[in-house]
Amino acid sequence: MSGLTLSGVTLRLAGRTLLGPLDLRVAPGEIATVMGPSGGGKSTLLAFLCGTLDPAFAAEGTAALDGVALTGLPPEKRRVGILFQDDLLFPHLSVGGNLAFALPREVKDRAGAVAAALAEAELPGYENRDPATLSGGQRARVALMRALLARPRAILLDEPFAKLDAELRGRMRDFVFAHIGARNIPCLLVTHDPEDARAAGGPIVRL
Amino acid sequence: MIGRRIFLGAAAGAALAARAHAQAPAWPAVRERARGKPVFFNAWGGDERTNAFVAWAAERVRAVHGVDLRHVRLRDTAEAVQRVIAEKAAGRESGGSVDLIWLNGPNFLAMKDQRLLFGPFAERLPNFRFVDVEGKPATVVDFTVPVEGFAAPWRMAQIVIVYDSARVPRPPRTMRAMLDWARDNPGRLAHPAARNFLGATFLKQALFELAPDAAPLGRPATDAAYDAAVAPLWVWYEALRPHLWRRGAQFPDGGPAVRALMNDGELDLMISFNPAEAAVSIANDLLPRTARAVGFADGSIANASFVAIPYNAANPDGAMLVADFLLSAEAQARMSDPRHLGNPSVLDLARLPPEESRHFRDIPAVPGMPSPGELGRALPEPHPSWMTRLAADWERRVLR
Amino acid sequence: MLRSAPALTLALFLGPIVAGLAGTALPAFGYLPALGGHAPSLDPFVRLFEQPGLGRGVALTILSGFAATLLSLAVAAGFCAAAYGTRSFARAQSFLAPLLATPHAALAIGFAFLVAPSGWIARLISPEISGWARPPDLASVNDPWGLALVAGLALKETPYLLLCLTAALGRSDVGRAVTLARTLGYGPFMAWAKIGLPRLYPSIRLPVYAVLAFGLSNVELALILGPTNPPTLAVTIVRWAADPHLDLFFPAAAAALLQLALVLGAIGAWRAGEIVLARAAARWRIAGARGRSPSPWAGLARGALAINFAVAAAALLVLALWSLAAAWRFPDDLPSAWTLANWTREGPRLAAPAGTTLALAALATLLAMALAVACLENESRRGVDGRRALWALYVPLLVPQVAFLIGAQALLVALGADGAFAALVWAHLIFVLPYVFLALAEPWRDFDPRYARAAACLGAGPTRVFFAIKLPMLLRPLLAAAAIGFAVSTALYLPTLFAGAGRWTTLTTEAVALASGGDRRVLAVYAFAQAALPLLVYGAALALPAWLHRNRRGMR
After folding, report:
1. Which residues of C touch A104 (CB under 8 A)?
2. Which of A1, B99, B301, B373 has its CA 20 to 30 A from that of A197?
3. What is the span of the domain harbouring residue C400?
């Protein structure tokens, strides 16, 4: 069973139910959207899927990726990529270093892979640049490339366009969706912007 | 291989020297056992000239005997005594942290009485035969206490008055005269607190001059003898104290602190235990060029400094080698040299073979060095119990 | 393994304190069979109270401790009130760290070189202004009232409290609250007194207590600047503990307990004072008095801090001058002859204590960093709140050193570990760890956990996240903490003296030993070297991340 499957996922904090029970299936190449008000547990759901849920939260239900249960696996073994509202580029590494950090170990031609990713992000030759010197849009593209270079089997988007200005948001959205679509992996987007949901084109869950 | 041959050669030389001296049959074995091991020499570290001398001695014993001498600089000799006592209390009967200790007076008596000393060893040292035991009895009787070989002498000390001749053309040479002088020159005389050795000696020197009878000072102080002897001393001292530096309310830490005050011009007069104090200090810019030294008119207290080995020392062999080196003509000559320490030697120079006595020929005459006539007669130290009582008594009076 | 880090850390640094206090308490009540004390008795205390000058020594201890703490707090808080938000506040920040890195002893020695009757100040004004052809008979150091000691303490504790206040300010919105109060018509000082300080004080309470405890119990400053006749209680204890008369160990232990009681009592009294003051201030705060603007106190507080910095800088300068002097006689303004001989002559003998200082500080700091990072990492991975352990961290700073070092030394001797280098490192660790931990805790807890999560989602395991992301991103606070730990270790006097058993000498023990008199030029060499070492390390800690991250704007 390929794709991302959530069944009966319920998240609680101090006995209070934040979310769920939620059932959802996202097929490869599909972008599903979870919409809801802020504080509604959207980001918590993504943390649950990544495996970075704070111990203060209690979770029930299961999540599986391509038929393999995610629950119980540490985050680094899940191969679930994530893009946040902030790009979270590591400030002590160069742009190339950020990308190389994500590359799996077995990739031999690391410089080549990084260069190819930069070309794809329309930032050729940016390997040695300080991420702090890039524009917001450039940083967001590098962050996406970094997430994709880790070869995730699914990708989660945590309001990745919320901090971009209106003009940039549309272009960035197209860029992200195009690249994710090309990887043919399931994608889960949480947002409170109906524009995002419409552009994603997949199933929509309202919390 | 070469190193080993030098080692064997040195050992053979030592064996020859030892055969000449029948008292020390085991000396070559001592040398062999000591080689390469550290000797922790616990010595008061408050005087830079002495520290430099110890550093020089460390270099020499490393070169001559291959002994690794390390100077543990003490604020107070009592620290090392205390450490040995603490080790005994903890049952450490060997491998102690103190190998050699510079002491005399109450510290020596305390260690000897509590059987904390290794020995007797002094007479086993090859160079001990040159010590002027007859001419300088303080080398075998420390503060009236027979040393009995539990410590080896290494330098002589005698009280002198150090004064700035530019300001004090005719220094007072008795304690009574000093009181008159202090009245005329308030705040220009200081002595260290009595818990300090030099401070206590200032009081002892006054006691010799002022006590109705000096004979009881050679015996342990009984209550009656003490009270009788010190009564005039305290009358004199209470008269003097308001005219001392800082009105006798604060006292410098020790001899070097007094010297620094004199160098700054705060003081005109002080006492020192080293006849060469003025000469050495002038040479090192530690006293004005006009500083001079002179003994007390009726004699000045003299004593010898000793080195002793704690009973639980980790390296008694190395400690003996160092004690013997300190008695060598080479070390004694450097010590007498006013460019270095300037203390009188413990040796009888006439007894030295010519190749040894040549070390003393290079000592120059320098300004500030008192002539034997100016130095005057040597007085023996009183029994240590006098110093202990005087110090406690002084503390009660001053802290009242 | 990480889970046991907090327990291990607490055992490592509280264990010796508890054991040492027990080792002090037994002989204080007459029990120490090895020294002939077989039955419990009050005799040590009887003997203690019979000592001449004890009452005055205790009174001096209390007065100088409280005076130094009040003065430091007043100047630090006053400066915040006077200068917060101005350029001089920011400028003062850059002076704080180097001043804090300078060991107490070096500053005190330099201070004595400045203010002694034959000190630099007297030389500069003599004979032209003062009319002194020779130094006056004036007790400007080692004065019987302990004023020089109070000044020497305040010289170092004022910047420390100012740093604590600045850190607390950065973590709160007190700055805005004060600004708000000023828009309501309150003068800057009133706004601080009524709004700022009451809100900030709780977060600097423990540092204030630590300052009070240090002021009441430190030995090296009292030796260098304090009254001599009688000295403060701590000096008396150290003197007795080192006396050849074995039986003085009992009253020394009793005096150490008295010292402990004194410090705890003083902290209690201070706390009571806080409560009374808070009650009294409650009504005053809402009574509406606005205060004058500009406040007359503002200039005083600014001036006091400026003097503090100037004196500290001059103290270091005069050390440098003396270390290069061949001859410098009163009343010359400067040495009449210069030389490098003091350095070349002392250099070889300086090497061993400098090496020990360096090795000791490096090892103690590394260990402390490893323990602190393990605790903090455990905290952040398991989501526990480690802030409750804050009091435990302050224990070594609140309990007077001499109170447990006397007992700890006896234990070390009994174990045959006195003078072992490991014991010395351990003794330093006890004092280095709290500072390192406090320096790291805030940056560690503030570290944005999303970076670690982002790295984990890119396939990096916990070890890789820790070494490739967290450590390098926290390089600056890590190195700053290391510099602080290094400076703390370099400055330690009493722990080195007791645990080192005289076999290990550091620049600090050498400088304090030489401070008892003698040659100012030699003392200056040691004191200057003692000050220079932590300053160099501090400079390196500042320069290294700046250089490494010269092309990383996000790391500045």
Report:
1. 459
2. A1
3. 1-29+341-556
